[in-house]
Amino acid sequence: MPDHYRFGTSELRPAERQLLIDDAPAALGAKAFDLLLALIQRRERVVDKAELFDAVWPGLVVEENNLHVQISSLRKLLGPSAITTVHGRGFRFVAALESDAATTAGSGGETKHPNNLPQLRTRFIGREKALGDCAGLLHDARLLTLSGIGGCGKTRLAQELAQRQLPAFPDGVWFVDLGPLQDAERVPATVATTLGIKDAIVAPLERLTEHLKSRQTLVVLDSCEHVIDAAVESIDALLEKCNAVKIVATSREALGMQGEQIFMVRSLSLPASTDVDEMLRSEAVRLFVDHARLALPDFTVDEGNAAAIAEICRRLDGIALAIELAAARVKVLSVDEIRARLDDRFRLLTGGNRAMPRHQTLHATMQWSHDLLTAPERRLFRRLAVFAGGCTLAAATDVSGDAADEYDTLERLTALHDKSLLIVDRDTQAHPRYRTLETVRQYAAERLNEAGEGDDIRTRHLLHYVALAERAAPGMEGPRQGEWFAALWQEQENLLAAHAWCAHAAQGGERALRLVASLWRYWSGTSQCAGGYRLAEAALDLTAGDPDSADRGRARFAMSYFALRLGRYDVVLSSAERSLAIGRTLGDAGLIARALTGVGMGLATTGQPRRAIVAYEEAIGVARSEKDGASLSFALNGIAEVHRELGNLADAQGFYEQSIALARAQENARATATGLGNLASLLIASGQLDRARTTLAESMALGSGIGSKAMVECQLDVVAALAAASASHSTAARFHGATLARMRESGTRHDPVDEAFIAGWMARSREAIGTAAFGAAEAEGKALGYDVAMAERNRWLSGSE
Q1: What is the mean pLDDT of the chain?
Q2: To 5 degrees, how large is the angle CA 540–CA 545–CA 548?
């Protein structure tokens, strides 16, 4: 981008975002400045309103009047003849720039910029920032490489950039398509022929450099990846011998040259919601609509199709080619039908536009990239398809089973990343994660199955995540439980994929039980008890008829606990009793202690508190004899809950305090927070409100610290009860509403003792302020997002509001 534009007595300085008139700064608003710059950069043609909206208000839907207001303000500053209106078409900047004078023909006054740029037939959608960034980079560098996955829009961006760079290159801008070349040696001859150099058959590179050595020229080399060595050789010679030449290259991998400036062409921006106005700010949606209208001129986004369009754009990863091909299908399919067929996207997304073969279908675009890989790179590429949501370096090495060590895997991952087939996420904990776009993953899965490796690699994936879950299980009851919750959250999609494969793998049922037994704390702690219940049920179904095992007993206990959180109290008791029977048969004391606690919960929730106490007392005894601190703390908390229900508050407080002390000694933040939250309920009931407040604050801080949303959500209702007891009745209703919304989302509920406790306090607040006021405050609470509700809770507990 030039560092200034002079016209008449005015000078526009883009880098400084300043307009000078008679060498004095002019008062010019930000949008007026952007509009003037956009018109000057496109001064060789009439610019339609839609393109100006994209340039000045990218991603926003604004009234057309805004454009006319800005044009009017510019004319007041620059005079009425600087910008002309071409009715029915748009606007054009017509004032003569000083830099244009040297290249203006004498008679016609038309600016001549030698070029062979293709006449583009569709609008350039979005990416104005990318264009500006590229122009700035090209101003400072002689070689700019646009890199990215196939179909992401590299060529289109390069063409638009070249078009806008015409005024800066008086000796021409030339676009050279290297895609059709089968013979890499023909690269220099192809470039020379495109530039109109005659007799370039012999020594074409020498002829090319001789022709360009004194010319101020921009050369765009499109699709370098398959002839990369020859392209590098030609570019190196041009940059060395032709001082005024600049080059823009497009390639699925960087060229690896000294002085190369790389610009990664990202996928188009995706819709953040299904609100129609919000969606139209998304580049992906605007591209879909633009191309859909080529097939159906009256196509629009409305409430009926917004969700489907948003999902199409997201599932196609914002890849421009994929979205264009999907949009073309609207002439024969509804958007809902297009969405429903995306699992078979490579058959759905075929072209008919007689484009270059590699761009006719999405499949061909992926094939083009795949064919450029070495054999070891192809093996890793297809085997990465089994990962859902990405993977770590260790997981890729273990599951792929192809590399001698992590360094071999790292080299191949690096190659896949450099060829735009892999994304590295560096903001997910301390260790980077490697993932592919869903479109790439589907293609890799095809290659995996085609190679006959699918079953073996998916089983390796299953074994890896069973081992991870079993390492995590004890960690979720110790001092590093926050780290383990975070790690498992990153791997959740892989854990679910591993569960799903159990139905097909040898010994899959046994491994499904191991996953359930190891992960019950994770699923419950992340408010996913419904999902955990389904996984436990599936694992038990897979092993129906198998001999009982400790893992089967632990899976039964997990189902019992999930059922408690879901309010399925009949299942709580029956599953816990079957778990206990397995534990007694096997003589597994650890399982017996946990199962007895489950039986206690089942008895308490089905109206049998006295029998529940007996079960808890036996659980406490077994856990003590086994020195099983986690099970002991769990059982002590359970028996305290029953005593609280019976009104034995002194006994309940004693058991809570024992449970909390034991959990603290083990640095078990989750168990400590659970006990503190329950103790706070007792303190509220006994009128110890100040102590309840500090106890709740500590409980909430511990729960938040380990990322246990389930605990925080449940105890938010205890905060509501404290607010009611403190006569903050509107606050109580608001927090109660927030809790109801969160629990509705997760499908969980309070157990009966907590349900009765909360209901009593909410009834007091409803009576105090009236049903209407309580309902209004409760509705406001239901509308709060999780983070907002937690922030309000913290402020209230700290006494700052």
Answers
A1: 89
A2: 70
